[in-house]
Amino acid sequence: xxxxxxxxxxxxxxxxxxxxxxxxxxxxxxxxxxxxxxxxxxxxxxxxxxxxxxxxxxxxxxxxxxxxxxxxxxxxxxxxxxxxxxxxxxxxxxxxxxxxxxxxxxxxxxxxxxxxxx
Length: 118
Description:
Elements: H1 2-21, H2 24-27, E1 31-41, E2 47-55, E3 58-61, E4 67-72, E5 77-84, E6 87-95, E7 99-106, E8 109-117
Antiparallel strand pairs: 1-2, 1-8, 2-3, 3-4, 4-5, 5-6, 6-7, 7-8
């Protein structure tokens, strides 16, 4: 009985994932974006520009030295994790058709970011 319920839950989760991944609204953010990261608090790099790729609502890095992963919702809400060596930062914000903005926090530093679709 428990095994059957667990199997149904897993199958349902895969079905929901497939529907979300195929969503045309989430796909409207697909493409290459340039993200400009600005530090406003803490002693970290003043800023940097980072290319990212969005495909079917999934965010990935377009830069070999920085790992970026995350999700974009149909509404344009975005959450990401950025890893460079031992440094980790987490960001959130909102994308529109060709631009976006938000905030990030990592360790003792925080700041803002803006994005432009290329």
